[in-house]
Amino acid sequence: MKKVVGEFDVELKPIEPTFMADDDNTVNRMTIDKTYKGDLTASGKGEMLSVITPVKGSAGYVAMEIIKGTLEGKRGAFVVQHSGIMGPSGEVLNIPIIPNSGSEELSGIVGSMNIKLENGKHFYELEYGLQDAD
Fold it and tell me: Which of 8, 23, 31, 42 is the 20 to 30 A CA-CA neighbour of 125?
C-alpha cells in the first residue's frame, strides 16, 4: 500500500432533507464539492446526510463521494464512502474506497482515506493499492 497526503478545499451546500427529524434531533442533507491538491489532484462530488443530537458535540454522518482526476500521475475515478460519529468518547471516521469503483488507470484501486482539520484547513491522507479488477 502507498500513502499520499495533501490538502483539499470543500464546499457544502444544504439541500432539503428527504425526511424530517423528530423534535430532539436535527437532520441535514448537503452536496459536497471538493478540490484535492497534491499527489491527488482531483475533484470530489457527493452527497452527505447528517444527524445532530441535542447533546452538544454528538453527531453522525454518512456520505458517498466520487473522486475524479489524477493520483500520482494515474488518471481515473473512484468512489469513497464516509461514515463518521462524534460523541463523549471521541470521534470515529471510516472512509473506505468502494471495491471495483476505480476506472481507467485507477481500475482495481483499494484502500481508505482519512481527513483532518487543522487551523481551519482540510487535509487528506490516502492509503491505496492497485490490484487487478475483479
Answer: 31
Instruction: Sketch out the chain's domains with CATH numbers.
Output: 2-130 (2.40.350.10)
What contacts 5, CB < 8 A, 6 or more positions away? 38, 39, 123, 124, 125, 126
DSSP state letters, 82-113:
EEEEEETTEEEEEEEBPTT---GGGTTEEEEE
Euclidean distance between CA atoms 13 and 77, whole angstroms: 23
Contact between 69 and 43 under an 8 Å Cβ cutoff? The reply is yes
Q: Which residues contact 105 (CB under 8 A, 6 or more apart)?
A: 74, 75, 76
Pairing of the two strands 40-52 and 90-96:
unpaired
Tens of pLDDT, residue by residue over 23-78, are 788 889 999 999 999 999 999 999 999 999 889 999 999 999 999 999 999 999 99
pTM over 0.70: yes
Q: Quote the cell numbers at residue 87.
A: 460523541
In the three-class reduction of DSSP (H, G, I as helix; E, B as strand; rest coil), residue 58 is classed as coil
